Amino acid sequence: MREVITLQFGENANYVGAHYWNLQEAYADEHRTGELFTQRSNKPSVPRALVFDAVGNFGAQALEEDLQSTGNDEIDEDQALWAGAKEVHRQPLYPKHTDSTQPTRMRFWSDFAQTKLSPHAMHVVSGVEFGNSLGEMNTFQEGLQVFAGTDSRGDVLEGNFRAFAEECDHLQGFQVLADAFGGFAGYGSAFMAKIRDEYPKTPILLYSVGRTQPARQLRNVQLMDAAISVATNSEIVSMSVPLFTPTPITKLNAHIHITVSNNENVYTLAAFLCP
User: Fold this and answer.
1) Which of 110, 142, 116 is nearest to 129 (CA)?
2) 220 vs 192 pLDDT, higher one
3) What's the CA gap between 243 and 230, in Å, rounded?
4) pLDDT at 188
5) Lowest mean pLDDT among 95-104, 120-129, 143-152, 187-196
6) φ and ψ at 92, to 5 degrees?
7) Average of pLDDT values for 177-185?
8) What is the pTM for the complete model shown?
9) Burial class (CB in 10 A: 0-12, 13-18, 19+), 82
């Protein structure tokens, strides 16, 4: 078996990634191939993928996984610090808007993600400690800083990434979907550089995902980020494929009619970009 490990960095990349895994799910049906999905005799088959995003972008998916990981609401009596009555209060799950005929109602990429990910596949990245005080990563450089701070605590390749890599019989390569600019562009670039150091001959295929019309106040910064990202990643990856929507998208083909207002319909654009 020649396995492939998939990595996704950032909101734009994860929107495209959700469409990608939905297509794989439709093609594979009940017969999933081992190249992209794990093949374990005693466990369900899941994508061999790791997903990185800000905590606010996971939507209901993050809360569902949290509920699964914490189990029931009962607190272990041996570890409880309070001997009195206990109550557990949880924020209700975000309602999922799965109706593809109303794409503007979808708030998160997890709203339409149909493929079940591994409980350990999702990784929340925050710039609170190592970057922006608000937890944001707005630039390529801030993403590098957050990665460096995270890696200083312990090798980021250990844990779930290592588990995926070591269960491969013959690792064919890595496919990466990453934001073309912003903090996750820098975070993803640093992550790939770490992989390249450990797997110097293993191919890395990068899809750089970006919106054509960024916010006007950030346009120059994002364009600079995209340029830095291309220059940096050219020394790391085996092949880089930019994924940007044409401007305007309706001019691409007379038979394609997609209405996009201020680039807000990310669901539709991501489906159009899905590799």
Assistant:
1) 142
2) 192
3) 13
4) 95
5) 95-104
6) -65, 150
7) 91
8) 0.78
9) exposed
Q: How far apart are CA 6 and CA 36, in angstroms?
A: 8
DSSP per residue over the chain, as a string? -EEEEEEEESHHHHHHHHHHHHHHHHHHTT---TTTB---TTS---BSEEEEE-GGGSTHHHHHHHHHHH-SSPPPTTT-S--S------PPPPPP---TT-GGG--SGGGT--SPPPTTSEEE---TTTS-TTS---SHHHHHHHHHHHHHHS-TTTTHHHHHHHT-SEEEEEEEEEESSSHHHHHHHHHHHHHHHH-TTS-EEEEEEE-SS--GGGHHHHHHHHHHHHHHHTTT-SEEEEEE--SSGGGS-TT-----STT--HHHHHHHH--
Asked whether the predicted pLDDT for residue 105 surpasses 70, the reply is no
Q: Is the pLDDT of residue 72 over 80?
A: no
Tokens of 229: 């990202």
